[in-house]
Amino acid sequence: MNQENNKIVCPVDEAIESNQHSYTPPIQSADTLFHFVDKLEYLLPVIEQFAIVPRYCIEDIDYLQIGMNKIAYPMLCFCDINLHKMQEHISFYGGYGIAFSKKWGIDKGIQPVQYINPKSILKEDFRKAFQDSLNAKTEDSAQNFLLSQMFYLKAIDGTMERDGESVQKNFTDECEWRFIPDVKSVKLPQAITEEEIFSKNTWNGALTVSGECWLKFDADDVKYIILNSEDEFEKVAEVIKKKRLGASKCDKLISKILIWSEVRRDL
Asked: How far is residue 115's CA from residue 97's CA, in Å, rounded to a whole number?
């Protein structure tokens, strides 16, 4: 790295070339996308299938003032928090995770969330445009764009349900990225309105058998597998061995397992 005009920049040769564009690794955030779950039993199928299954997640959109309080989208959530700052996130979302390079995530279409200030011009312009789109007689590209944009919007702060309690959070701390699959191809709704949210579990069941909508990966794509305690290492290692990847690739993937209760002491 060097400094030009008081700005930190990366030398050109540090950018990673791809078929479509060059990728410049970040300096202030992690060059990794982490996906966490709160139980080992949720992580094991991810490793068994080499795929993460999206789920319809309820989002509070009251702050947008578009006449809806809640909506649900099919999604997978990731964060790009540096490991030495990860403890709070893990405490809230669970100590079982799988991580990939940020370049891999970008190539897969994973998109960072835009955090919205409810008092901003951006929010007000979105509100007006969305209301106008609802009054349109026919569906057009502008309506599709507004819905797609809403998939990646989140308030700066708010409340969310956790273990039956309402918790106040500043959502910008989550450094969230989202994978939103195109589920229309398997005849599932791209968004579920508040009146239909009661059917969320039914749609989630449909996603579990719709492999086209899963986020798939290979062994070489995995950067880390994070476990809560050393007692769980053998369970995960056994699942990896059953994949029959070959000795070298199997050993390499097992070597990527991090035991968080041990790692956090050194961060």
From this structure: 24
